[in-house]
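Notes, Module 5: Reading structure tokens.

Key idea: the token line is not a picture. It is a compressed description, and you learn to read it the same way you learned to read a sequence, by spotting repeated patterns. We will look at two proteins. The first is printed below with its tokens.
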Amino acid sequence: MADIDNKDQAEMDPADMEDVEDVEEEETGEDENSKARQLTVQMMQNPQILAALQERLDGLNGSPSGYMESLPKVVKRRVNALKNLQVKCAHIEAKFYEEVHELERKYAALYQPLFDKRSEIVTAAYEPTDEECEWKTDEEEELTDEMKEKAKLDEEKKDEEKENPKGIPEFWLTVFKNVDLLSDMLQEHDEPVLKHLQDIKVKFSDPGQPMSFSLEFHFEPNEFFTNTVLSKTYKMRSEPDESDPFSFDGPEIMSCVGCTIDWTKGKNVTLKTIKKKQKHKGRGTVRTVTKTVPNDSFFNFFTPPEVPENGELDEDSEAILAADFEIGHFIRERIVPRAVLYFTGEAIEDDDDDYDEEGEEADDEEGEEEADEENDPDYDPKKDGTPPAECRQQ
């Protein structure tokens, strides 16, 4: 067969030979393209390659596309004029947020009498009237008069059996334990201390002073420390950075300052004592050494890392401060104004509803992607690294 093939090729016209060579080259090109497509599909299914690609794309965000360089000089001049207008917009926005801060201060004074009364009820300094205690729940609206009377008698019987508590015991501790962001900071040894927390207040900087706010934690006399108030001040900035004015997006917390806690001897929950055994190299004798080391505690919140004048921090300090700023902002914006709803859990349910909606949207998108894959005639499940739905762990 080989001789016949060679003979046929020898007898073929040279023009025909050129046609054959062209066809072979085309077929070879198609094979290479097919292999390239398969390789691309395999690469795109590799999580590590996708992560590296995403990182590269993230690095390109905001980078010049080359379009600006291609513009005529006169157009570039006009774009520069727009940029100067944008800087002026940023300065006006900064003034807007300064006035918002003034409004916050004004309305804080209106809220404060209500928050003071809340504190008086929590600490048993004031007993609310029957009229002030009236609150219709959805369940009560559905009950008949007979059922309401029975429920009232049952409650009165329970109250007689229990000791009469003062105010609302462990109000703020319960709030903290109900909020994930704060409960993550709490340790078991913090709880006896926080049972003495009576109120949290927000204080804004005075007019004409640099923008800031303070959180004040008011405690009743206790065995742990002599302070009646523990405070923390967050210093803010509401002006564009001259070196990068386009990054301005409202006030930002620049630093925070805590306070010194005057701990009673032996009651400092931010420190713990450990014992270590040390062996003498020469004699071989063993001795026990007692050391005092830092301890995880909510009260470390009052000793944040100091921000140096140059503003440079190591990664650990940056992470701690970022979390600290988030917590301080959350206490100011959510916890203090809506404390009772975090105590009852109603505010937490609202927060969960927000997250559920996002989750449902994500699930829908994932479902759409899976449906697209199933409808794709070129889709091959064997090449997909994701196991089928029935094989995934629940």
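Here is the second protein, with the sequence above and the tokens below, as before.
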Amino acid sequence: MATTKYRAPSPYAKDRQKAHVTDFKHQRYLESIGFDPSMKKDEVLIQEDLKVINVALFGLGRAGSIHLANIMRNTRICLKYVVEEDHQRMKCVQAKWHLPDNVLLFPEESEKVFRDPSVHGIIIATPTFTHKDLIVQGLNAEKAVFCEKPIAEEYESVRHCYELAKKVDKPLLCAFNRRFDPSFSHLRDQVHSGVVGQVHMVKTVARDSPPAPVDYLKISGGILHDCAVHDVDLICWVLGEYPTHVFASGTAFIPEVAEINDQDTVAITMRFPSGAISMTDLSRNAVYGYDQRLEVFGPKGMMIAGNERPYNVTTSTEQGKSEPPLFYSFPSRYCDGYIKELDHFCDIIQGLDEISISGDNTLRISTIISALEVSNATGKMTEVKY
């Protein structure tokens, strides 16, 4: 046989094969059996009353329902309370997760959460206009706070929340969950290690599927605050810097979106101190699935985090080659990111990690979005003044 000379030695005669650093699911398996050699979390002495983290969840909307499922599946967390105003939704959740009556609270009963000294942290997934008050109440009650973006509606309110967090020495984590997506996180680590050299260009595509309910769009703050904020944070995080000038141009093709004075299609360009340029393509509706892409280009090459699908299967027939559609929407596409984000919040509370998203970052992202709003309204490139 022509290849006999290439016979390999027995795998048992060599050192045991090790999982590659990129295999985050194997890492999760190691953590589940109490063996975590990379993070060495077992070497950190966790405070006795923090070995199980008691949390309260505010809101059972789109994001809140994702957080609830992850809370119930996380062995480090005990769900003490759920606060929700929709009685029917609360009853459905109670039946699904077999929650006792004393866990379920209406908003007017939420003071019980803040008075309960056993609650270590609160997770806020309510409409934006409620965020500031809940954050302030949580921090004043000495609870760690994890809040869906934005922290508040106005810049000064965001600043106040972070100043209060510093004053009471409690963490305030803003949920920029794309940072926790395994593909995006790995790409960023590789870029920072110099794989593509000095970055020249970053491109992101974020096209929603399906269109968000109009009632949600009315309270979303608009496509820039609701959608673009994720891409802006992701780009700044990958580059490690913030833009000096930004440009945005948008339009509304969908009548229902135009009627509420919002936009469904936006193009964004940002220029950075290093000379790097970014381009972002936003849409409220992609009929073919949840389109989420990130590309980074430099003199040494290019990295792309492409779209993901439910199954890695290709079918070839006389009609040609086909694959399953893209993930339908954000709960499936960013499933792993939501899990890792919640684990990060737990790590912060237990003293296993430092908070990875600073108040300064969140404030700068808010400033950038405001500059993009000015550019979108004026049709001119706008300088970002921090």
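Summary for the second protein:
- The chain has a mean pLDDT of 94.
- Residues 359-378 form the longest helix (20 residues).
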